[in-house]
Amino acid sequence: MRVDPNYVSTLADSLNKTQATEQSLASQLSSGVRITSLSDDPVAAGQNVSLMNQIQQDDTFTSNATMVKGQLQVADSALGSVVTELTSAISLATSANNGSLSTDEVKSIATQLTGVLSEVQTLANTSYQGQYIFAGSATSTSPFSTSGGVTTYSGDSDVNYLELPNGEQIQLNVPGDQIFTSSTASVFGSLNALIADYSTGTVNVTQATTDLTTLNSALNYVSRQRVVIDNSINQVSSAADATSNLQTQLTTAQTNLLQADVATLSTKLSTSESQFTALESVIVSMESSSNSLFERM
């Protein structure tokens, strides 16, 4: 029997391709992954790269959000303590202004207000992970110091922001000069003034009342700035939750894109194995019908 060499070559190629397909299908079933190289599915591989980039960006944002949320919470706690201290100072000043205290008692209030000033300054110099949170962008510098009855600010007025994956921004800080040394409601200015008002033991009621009014304004102003921080905490939390949910969705999409469909692969493997067996049978049949099939190829 004379066998067409081209036909034999075609059968051999088909057998090799079928065997390669079997191996690929078996590998996918074993690993559970259907795409191991770009050539397996160029479109899906490209989609996978896009998904990976988005997942990495979201992961970076989530990490940053966790850090800045901690910073905001520390700032909120510090401002809450400032409110407590200023409330105490207002109570002390109100007592000193009522005209019923002795000289020594008024001086004692000046001493207590000095303690309040010191505590507020400590709170205004709060740091988080080595960064001063009320120094604007000059976070490596302790922002407040007091000398000679005057408190000075060494930070700047910059406002820092966290950029969301969608491009929106969340305010992360309120500069210390805005919170504590406002020209119309200065925390340190009013405290220093009240200390001076009472340090001699003799109260100028008109001046002390004016300074107390300024301190009340400062307290209200600090409370408003605290609302800014609280709003930022809520925004960061919401953005982090939304990003986390998106990460879950993207990860699921990536898994569905890459994972092997066991049922479909099993069917394809079974079909491929049948094709391989059939091709082998044809070749064996041809060999048995000729003296030497491959010698004539």
What's the layout of helices and strands?
Elements: H1 5-31, H2 42-96, H3 103-124, E1 127-128, E2 131-132, E3 144-147, E4 150-153, E5 161-163, E6 169-171, H4 176-180, H5 187-198, H6 205-258, H7 262-288
Helix pairs in contact: 1-7, 2-3, 2-5, 2-6, 3-5, 5-6
Description:
- By secondary structure, the chain is mostly helical.
- The chain has a domain at 72-254: Up-down Bundle (f41 fragment of flagellin, N-terminal domain), CATH 1.20.1330.10.
- The protein is 68% helix and 6% strand.
- The strands form three sheets. The chain has a two-stranded antiparallel ribbon.
- The two termini are 13 Å apart.
- What strand order characterises the main sheet? 1-2
Any low-confidence stretches, pLDDT <50, length ≥5? 291-297
CATH fold-level label of one domain: f41 fragment of flagellin, N-terminal domain
The CATH C-level class name of one domain: Mainly Alpha
Helix-residue proportion? 55-70%
The number of helical runs is 7
| pLDDT averaged residue by residue | 81
Radius of gyration over all CA atoms, rounded: 38 Å
How many runs of DSSP E, i.e. beta strands?
6
CATH architecture of one domain: Up-down Bundle
Along the chain, the helix and strand elements come as HHHEEEEEEHHHH
Distance between the termini: 13 Å
> From the helix content, strand content and strand pairing, which structural class follows?
mainly alpha
Q: Report the CATH superfamily of one domain.
A: f41 fragment of flagellin, N-terminal domain
Overall morphology: rod-shaped
Q: Quote the beta fraction.
A: 5-15%
Largest sheet composition? 2 strands, antiparallel
